[in-house]
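Progress against Task 2.4 (sequence-to-structure conversion) is shown through the following example record, which the project officer requested during the mid-term review.
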Amino acid sequence: MPNEARIVITGIGLTAPIGNNLAEFRQNLLAGKSGVGTIETHYMGEVIAGVCNFDPLKHQKKKELRRGTRAGSIAVYCAHEAIEDAKLDLDSVDKSRIGIYIGITEHGNVETEHEIYNIKQYDYNIDIWSHHHNPRTVANSPAGEITLNMGITGPHYTLGAACAAGNIGLIQGQQMLILNEVDFALAGGVSETPNTFGVFAAFKNEGALASHPDPTKASRPFDKDRNGVVISEGGCLCVLERLNDAIARGATIYGEIVGYSINSDAFDYILPNPQRQVECMNLALKKAGISASEIDIINTHATATPEGDKAECQAIRELLGNNSHTYINNTKSYIGHTMGAAGTLELVGNLPSFDDYTVHPTINVDNLDPDCALLNLVINEPRKVDKIDYILNNSFGMLGINSALIVKRYAE
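Structure tokens generated for the chain above:
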């Protein structure tokens, strides 16, 4: 493949319930530290959730925080951290050639719920309704807030892709670089979901909201006693660029995106279709030009719902057959489901494996479900291995949207 079509990751900015940079995030993944706790939400009181603890004033002024959104603040934080990590001097590049592509699960619910809650306290007097509501709730808001904060004049938009959105943000960034629409892409996903009680209420009424006396054990994919999703917030944006450009400026390269796929179940609003998931992974492998046996790590989407975990395990079992080389892990067991941010956070948490040859485990597996007992499922303790060259990251979402992304160890 010519270098102008080879797209690499050169910067990572993130905030998650277990860290505000990649080093901290990775350290806690290897230490088995959960970031899940409890918060108070309207009408429901105390709920289990994963919340970030970053400093929004590090890169924003108080006025920006008043006018903007939590998702926008997360996005701005991640964008600055990614640019700094990539050692990219914004004053020395053409800002009209930087594209911003952010995956989201939903946007606007938080602001609308809060405004309705507020006017209820004043007998529904609409004079109380914020005049900032419209720009806060347009779908491009998180990406647009980055442009306002950083003076970036290239294209910006969000991609509504349910819980596959983080992967799809990265895929969009890669595609725009290959098309030469931009020279740098800030790509990934963000989520502010714990700020909306409606998502908690819907999952609860669906019977899919996680519960446990110990919140740190509530997110437990693959465990026989799993009982639902832990709703969390987070963000992760990556700097993507063409390989030639990265080499020319001496950038650190975390990995090369070599394969991806997006498809649809066309099956159900919520229930997954494992056959379509297999097809999605196989399409990504075909694009990467490799076989399933060459994948060293599969980071699973598994959200700790009984049917969802089982379906993905069925898909992976069909993909791999009797291959005992590929290691399987999960990140949601630490941070819950960060929705639009999940795909990107879960991918980058595994990228340091290229250097330390360690697979982080799935935690909170006390009683492994036989339907989820995959070969080389890494549980509760990290696994040191001899070779890690390819990582496959799964992210699936409601209404049957599937994504798979393959990143390769960079080699000249």
